[in-house]
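Lab notebook, design round three. We kept the backbone fixed and only want residue identities now. Task for the bench partner: fill in a sequence for the structure below.
Input structure tokens:
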């Protein structure tokens, strides 16, 4: 029994979160040389892998739908913490950080993660099959949240510039939270079968019967280590953020690129989890992760930032620019055409990935 316990403690998924926290404690608040920054980035990447592993263990215990929800919410909490931390210390130059990060998360999830998931599914089965009812409902919620929170501020007239008045921001925050909560109820209870994978013939696959769930003790341990790993991810990402900001400035890139980098970092766990699900013929689970992450990014981040804006001195600019609105509208239209048939080919996967490439290019060269 003792050797078994030692083997469990030496397991990489247990050791990495602990190592990441140790690195976080040792490096916090210090000016680090380049080689140490590279080391922190390596530990950060390993912590992301550990987070995905533990999220999958928790998902095996509570079910894929709740597991996807736990990962999306946990990562969104990390995203909010990073945004607020940088806004507190960044001053006026961070006025658009929340907008840039949330928009980047939407584009990465709805084009990058979704496109990658479809690509893997297509390469395995020639045609990626999913449930259009559930995926369509998720997409409609994402489109509504994105429009209310990121597009409408561009056209309101109560305040100068692309920002809400306090009353408008409160409404947007409450509406976002209410929509997200409503979706969670629909996904996990009333219409749960809409979000389960389907076979090529259209039959629903009960993925929760495919494997024996882990013991409760192991699941609880993985849940605790998931939290530790995600805290380490945000902390280590915060440590390397000055180097990111300095690199963005040195490369003469727009300040909005910082938001893109933050979104890429915090969405790594979902990206890896979605890719693994697609490799296991669970394309629907991958799409749940992609659209669920986009939904959580807006539905939880906007209310949290709205609450934080009470004591933040920095104005909160949420309205997108013209180019960003065009990209968002194109993403929604393409995603609708992808989702409605319930089947996707290599072409749909390629279109979404090209849209992500266009967004990343225009973010660096507006």
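Proposed sequence:
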């Amino acid at each position: 029994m003792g050797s078994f316990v030692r083997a469990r403690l030496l397991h990489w998924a247990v050791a990495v979160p602990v190592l990441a926290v140790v690195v976080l404690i040792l490096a916090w608040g210090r000016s680090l040389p380049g080689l140490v920054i590279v080391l922190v980035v390596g530990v950060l990447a390993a912590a992301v892998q550990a987070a995905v592993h533990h999220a999958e263990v928790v998902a095996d215990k509570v079910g894929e739908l709740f597991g996807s929800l736990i990962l999306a919410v946990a990562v969104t909490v990390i995203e909010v913490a990073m945004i607020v931390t940088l806004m507190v210390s960044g001053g006026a130059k961070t006025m658009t950080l929340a907008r840039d990060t949330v928009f980047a998360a939407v584009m990465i999830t709805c084009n990058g993660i979704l496109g990658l998931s479809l690509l893997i599914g297509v390469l395995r089965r020639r045609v990626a099959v999913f449930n259009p009812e559930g995926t369509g409902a998720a997409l409609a919620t994402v489109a509504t949240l994105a429009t209310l929170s990121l597009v409408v501020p561009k056209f309101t007239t109560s305040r100068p510039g692309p920002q809400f008045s306090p009353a408008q921001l409160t409404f947007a925050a409450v509406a976002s939270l209410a929509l997200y909560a409503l979706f969670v109820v629909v996904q996990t209870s009333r219409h749960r079968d809409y979000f389960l994978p389907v076979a090529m013939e259209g039959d629903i696959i009960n993925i929760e019967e495919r494997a024996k769930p882990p013991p409760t003790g192991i699941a609880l341990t993985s849940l605790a280590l998931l939290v530790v790993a995600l805290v380490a991810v945000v902390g280590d990402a915060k440590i390397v953020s000055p180097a990111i900001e300095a690199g963005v400035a040195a490369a003469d890139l727009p300040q909005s690129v910082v938001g893109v980098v933050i979104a890429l970092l915090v969405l790594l766990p979902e990206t890896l989890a979605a890719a693994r699900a697609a490799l296991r013929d669970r394309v629907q689970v991958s799409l749940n992760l992609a659209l669920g992450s986009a939904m959580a990014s807006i539905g939880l981040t906007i209310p949290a930032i709205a609450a934080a804006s009470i004591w933040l001195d920095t104005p909160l600019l949420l309205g997108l620019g013209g180019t960003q609105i065009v990209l968002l509208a194109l993403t929604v239209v393409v995603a609708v055409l992808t989702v409605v048939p319930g089947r996707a080919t290599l072409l749909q996967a390629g279109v979404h990935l090209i849209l992500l490439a266009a967004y990343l290019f225009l973010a660096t060269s507006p």
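Keep this in mind before ordering anything: The domain at 2-364 is CATH 1.20.1420.30 (A middle domain of Talin 1).
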